[in-house]
Amino acid sequence: MWTASCSRRWSDLKAIAASIGELRAYRYDCIIDIQGVYKTAIIAFLARSSRRVGYRNQDLGELGAAFAYTERFGPRPDASAWEGMRISAGEALGYQPEGLPVFDLKLPETGAQPFEAGDAPVAALFHATSKDDKKWPVTHWGEVGRELTQRGFRIVLPWGSPGEREEAVAIAAEVPGATVLPQMSVTDIARMIDACSLVVGTDTGFVHVAHALQKRTVMIFVSTSPSHFGIAAPHRSISIGDGASMPSVSEALRAIDYVHSDPLTAGELGHPANAA
User: Fold this and answer.
1) Of 83, 109, 114, 257, which residue has the fewest beta carbons closer than 10 angstroms?
2) Could you tell me the residue range of the domain that residue 75 belongs to?
3) Residue range 39-80, pLDDT digits in tens
4) Residue 248 located in a structural domain
5) 3-state class (DSSP) for residue 70
């Protein structure tokens, strides 16, 4: 019997096939995988190029990604994750990056406002992750949300799946005045991030978007490596956690203090400026 579930799966398969066709519609001079995990390696392998560059085995985020590459970067640079990626990409393409990165992201101005405008600064809590072992506890999110509310922030909670919405509702129940946002497109989420004063989240792509948009950003690492995926910008972005244990609420609050500090007062916060 053909069911609605079967129809959705067939629709998903068609969408995947269409994406692969679009990916393979062009031939590339070089494919550079600067993340080094299964999902990026698969995309690199499917794309049409005779030159696919990735990390050495010991530097990969997931060892199985090694199948995709025809060449390897040299030893991983002794730098933050983002700066290391810049250096590795330059190595693959024959140049050396100089100066601070300039992302120069341009977001479309059309579309509905992500939330109602107000006088209070807005903090987005990105609690959702691709894997359960990367999650931070709901109770921890609740404590951070309540503290930020006391500091005058409005809390917003984005989500992408029904399960993530349930988690957002659970966090909102612990944070007076918190708003569970409607489901949004990737572009709308990026616009929402740009309208925020602070972003706190786990190791997920949208937190990297916040960093690239130069928002005050705290990234929480529970089970993945901050040296591979962390963010860092003095007094603006920081990663916490070692990827092997659960960061505490107090550590997250110190990180929030740090990204709101300036160089003259940072030493008083007792929080290191290094992130990855």
Assistant:
1) 109
2) 17-93
3) 999 999 999 999 999 999 999 989 999 999 999 999 988 887
4) yes
5) coil
Mean pLDDT of the chain: 89
Which residues have CB under 8 Å from 252's CB, separation 6+?
140, 144, 200, 218, 220, 240
pLDDT(131) > 90: no
Could you report the per-residue pLDDT of 219-255, keeping only the tens digit for each? 999 998 888 788 988 999 999 999 889 999 999 999 9
Q: 86 vs 76, 78, 82, 97, 273, CA distance in Å?
A: 11, 12, 6, 7, 20
Co-location of 82 and 126 in the same domain: no
The domain boundary residue, chosen from 93, 113, 147 = 93
In a domain, 101, yes or no: no
Cα–Cα–Cα angle for 20, 26, 27, rounded to 5 degrees = 115
Do 146 and 240 reside in the same domain of the chain? yes
Reference 182, options 87, 113, 105; nearest CA is 113
Q: Which two tokens stand for residue 96?
A: 């050396």
- CATH number of the domain within which 61 lies: 3.40.50.2000
Query: Is residue 41 assigned to a domain?
Result: yes
Q: Which two tokens stand for residue 80?
A: 């933050």
Q: What is the pLDDT of residue 92?
A: 95
pTM of the model: 0.77
